[in-house]
Amino acid sequence: MTLFAKAPAYFLIGALLGTSLPATASDPAQLPEIGTAAASTLTIEKEMEYGDAYMRMIRASMPVISDPLLSDYIQDLGHRLVANANGVKTPFTFFMIQNRALNAFAFFGGHVAVHSGLFLYAKSESELASVVAHEIAHVTQRHLARSMEDQARKSPATMAALIGSLMLAIASPEAGMAAIHATTAASAQGQINYTRSNEKEADRIGIATLAKSGFDVQAMPRFFGRLADEYRYASTPPPMLLTHPLPESRIADSRSRANQYPKTNVGYSERYHLARSRIIARFAGLDSDAALNWFDRQLKRATPQTRDALNYGKAIVYIDSGKYQQAQALLSPLLAKEPNNRFYIDTATDLDLYQKQYGRAIKRLENALKSAPSNNVLRLNLAHTMQEAGKYSQSIPILTRYTHDNPDDPNGWHMLAQGQAAVGRRDAELAARAELFALNGAWPKAIQNYIQASQLVEINSLDQARYDARIDQLRLDQQRAASLQR
């Protein structure tokens, strides 16, 4: 489904990552509970407040990928790892940012971001999972909070400056980054040493999580080694290697730890390769000719397993460049082979919509929903298709339920606002747009939208009561966000 898409925060996190305790574990399956005592600096509840504030800032300022299929994939991968991680104290949210630079980062409140460029470097799902598992470990070990605690022990003034810089960054990333660099300049060598220690700890715990989750633990040292070789003499390494240094000692340590686990035969992940092809076709910043050349080069040495995923990517490029017949020729056999594959269903729906075959698309989606009635990708596709077909009133119940279930997904609110506008419900349109503003931390605009919505409906009606209650909640959220900056 083609919808809208939307040193940044990850440099802030990289600059502040701090101290850890020595890592010792003779039994890879029995990891000690270390390095999580940071409550004197930040409570879990306060970390979650900071994380929510960062997430709203990121939505407003960075190109977060809103593609439902890719969001569904990265969330599933992340939560598979979290289910096998130790020391989980917060909910986790995984999302992707459209950026060709190699990077992934984690921040307060269980938020983990993955750059789309990571898929250009990771050659298997296990390699991708190794990076995500590493970032999960940063969160469960509370490395950022521990860094603050260490700074507080060394210098209360430095701690105060760090906290002030952090709060400033929530409101103004560029100004906050300048303040952080000034604050940490005096103890740069200590920060580097702490970061290396944290990285080894996150590697060790990440490898254990990989093993429990059924991934190939050798993927981590293999991926790290390949990156180190490629960028050993680079004058400008990618962001991931700036915030996650890869000295030989770290690679050797990860290899040694991975060798403590029995070898596993990890099967082919079709979803990973389909997601990778979708990213290269739409989110790698390549024009259609360059993308097609990439897929053709890969197809020359493709295995039978990966060939379908590569042809799927080519079909997307053809659709996006208006070559519908070529797209149909590639997509039809894929869909015939796997009629319930949601990647294929989504892209077939795109092709139908471009060709104005609305009835065919709706029928396909309704059939698919019979076996998976709560699937987010299919629900959004159906609502989108109905709106493209002019059936706005039929899309509204689907979107109303979807936004209730997924209040943090801007796709649902954006489409609901469009649907309400089309049927002439100005108050409901304003309310949906208010939620979009709130997701970006634009509290005054969100509150003003709800005030206007409340003024448009009947006095003392249920709608007015609902809008007024939401205004009260948003004002509390605004106050809470403001308190983080003081």
Quick gist of this model?
Its EC number is 3.4.-.-. The protein has 486 residues and is mainly alpha-helical.
Task: Please provide a written account of the structure.
The chain is mainly α and 486 residues long. The protein has 24 helices and three strands. Among the domains are: 9-258, no CATH class; 425-486, Methane Monooxygenase Hydroxylase, Chain G, domain 1, CATH 1.20.58. The chain has helices at residues 9-16, 44-61, 68-82, 118-121, 125-140, 143-154, 156-171, 173-184, 188-212, 219-230, 239-243, 248-258, 270-282, 288-300, 304-320, 324-337, 342-354, 358-371, 376-388, 392-405, 410-422, 426-439, 443-456, 462-484, and strands at residues 93-97, 104-107, 111-115. The protein has a three-stranded mixed sheet, sandwiched between helices. Strand 2 (104-107) and strand 3 (111-115) form a beta hairpin. Helix 5 packs across helix 9 (188-212), helix 15 packs parallel to helix 17 (342-354) and helix 19 (376-388) packs parallel to helix 21 (410-422). The protein is flat.
